Amino acid sequence: MPLPLFPLLTPIIIAIICIYAAAIWKNTRKANKSKTEEKVISKPWVDDDLKDGTEFNIQQQASKQLDEEITAQHIPYSPKHYSEEEMMRRAKKFYELMNKRRSVRFFSDEPVPREVIDYVIRTAGTSPSGAHTEPWTFVVVQEPEMKRQVREIIEEEEEINYKKRMGQTWVQDIQKMRTNWTKEYLEIAPYLILIFKQVYGNLPSGKKIHYYNEISVSISCGILLAALQNVGLVTVTTTPLNCGPRLRALLERPVNEKLLLLLPVGLPAKNVTVPDFHRKPLTDIMVLV
Ligand SMILES: Cc1cc2nc3c(=O)[nH]c(=O)nc-3n(C[C@H](O)[C@H](O)[C@H](O)COP(=O)(O)O)c2cc1C
To answer: Looking at the keywords, is Nucleotide-binding present (predicted)?
Structure first.
């Protein structure tokens, strides 16, 4: 006598339903988990305006740029060769100079020759850059009315950053700097240097890819800081969060330029103080393999 089919299938159907239910439950958990992770890793200090909005035919441009690189003529290059003692002397001397660099938030209004600033920026422009694209623009503001307008924008946005956008931890972390959203130095320092990264270049033939533009501009800023230190000028590296679009409009910069850093530049105020910070020793920052 044949076995009744329905009772035989029932456990199989139940098993299939259970497997489906388990799979749905697992997926829902996974989705909820990634939502929570997204919340946990929210980074209010990351400026939306700095995101790379490069939208053009990357393939086409890349081969054009490579062609340019390949066709560049090569010329002799002979950098200075120092003796070991001289190398050591220079290494120490430069370290000692740079180790004296500190971020200064109080400035004197004493004038500084413009030609000095020109050379400092020329020096920043010697930086290496991805595929030699030189994706930087240094806007030097010296006009008092323009400095006032820059200050107004920054203070308005910074007040919101402090009170709403950034968390309590951030506010606590920067307390040791004794700084807040009021930034008198933006009008007192003789110069403000606003550094823009060009996320792409504009050529008569179209847009040009700026590879690694943020890394390239950051390296040039490091060189700029060293050049300022070399001439005895002071600054504080600042990242005016959420001010990019308004400052870009104020300074009439094109949309491919995104504000990366702002450096007030000048001489320090009399009797200026800085936080008593200590730098990590070599053993903590260098790994020899
Ligand atoms: C990427 C970056 C962003 C910074 N942003 C600010 C800022 O917005 N405001 C500020 O007062 N200092 C800012 N600083 C300066 C740091 O607080 C300072 O470099 C740090 O406290 C170490 O002190 P020192 O520069 O005197 O060695 C910034 C520094 C860096 C590198």
So the answer is: no
